[in-house]
């Protein structure tokens, strides 16, 4: 079983999906990506999750993020299930769902946790940067649906901190003040962050979010 850590290159794979054959790295191109697994088709929590992602597609698009789902069920099952998702969730599934019957991708990304369930994937989430590196991993049990508002919040933080010398504090949301990283000397802050800053402690300096007008 693979072990993936933050900063590793996301393993590449080729697989069948509801939108045709996908070579993962080629499909991502210059975009960020969210790869998330669900335990099985025709299950209630997963139905609500995929419906939610379809409704949030525009929010992912404006962040240059592609989303792709996966389960160990087959392509015919996926196609039939999409009809149920569209009907019950009042949306149209607008992203690919990978068919991983041979568990190749699931094992590549360590999505099957035998002590939880030896047959089905847990609710894994991988956020992958445009550099193909793994930026975040979250694992939920099969019984707990994901909060996609939280995933968008994390993506906002990841994309902000990738390009600016800041970190985001607890409960940060887009538009809130940020923490100046310790590597920036206090005397250098004005030239890097012209919006100003507040020094709470020498190691805790706050500045307005730098990528907002």
TrEMBL record:
**Active site per UniProt:** 46
Q: Which GO terms describe its cellular component?
A: cytosol
All copies of domain Thioredoxin, residue ranges: 4-160
Q: Does the entry feature the keyword Protease, yes or no?
A: no
> What's a single GO MF annotation on this record?
peroxiredoxin activity
Which InterPro entries does the UniProt record give?
AhpC/TSA, Peroxiredoxin_AhpC-typ, Peroxiredoxin_C, PRX_1cys, Thioredoxin-like_sf, Thioredoxin_domain
Q: Which one GO biological process term can you cite for this protein?
A: cell redox homeostasis
Q: Which UniProt keywords apply?
A: Antioxidant, Oxidoreductase, Peroxidase, Redox-active center
Family affiliation = Belongs to the peroxiredoxin family. Prx6 subfamily.
Q: What is this protein called?
A: Peroxidase
């Amino acid at each position: 079983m693979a072990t993936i850590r933050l900063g590793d290159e996301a393993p590449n794979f080729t697989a069948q999906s509801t939108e045709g054959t996908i070579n993962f790295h080629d499909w991502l191109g210059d975009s960020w990506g969210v790869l998330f697994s669900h335990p099985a088709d025709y299950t209630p929590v997963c139905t609500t999750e995929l419906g939610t992602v379809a409704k949030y597609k525009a929010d992912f698009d404006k962040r240059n993020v592609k989303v792709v789902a996966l389960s160990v069920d087959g392509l015919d099952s996926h196609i039939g299930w999409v009809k149920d998702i569209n009907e019950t969730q009042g949306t149209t599934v607008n992203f690919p769902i990978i068919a991983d019957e041979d568990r190749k991708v699931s094992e590549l990304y360590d999505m099957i946790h035998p002590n939880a369930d030896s047959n089905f994937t847990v609710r894994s989430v991988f956020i992958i940067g445009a550099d193909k590196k793994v930026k975040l991993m979250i694992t939920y049990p099969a019984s707990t649906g994901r909060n996609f508002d939280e995933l968008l919040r994390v993506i906002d933080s990841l994309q902000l901190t990738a390009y600016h010398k800041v970190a985001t504090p607890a409960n940060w949301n887009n538009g809130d003040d940020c923490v100046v990283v310790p590597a920036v000397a206090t005397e250098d802050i004005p030239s890097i962050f012209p919006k100003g800053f507040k020094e709470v402690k020498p190691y805790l300096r706050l500045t307005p979010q730098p990528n907002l007008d």
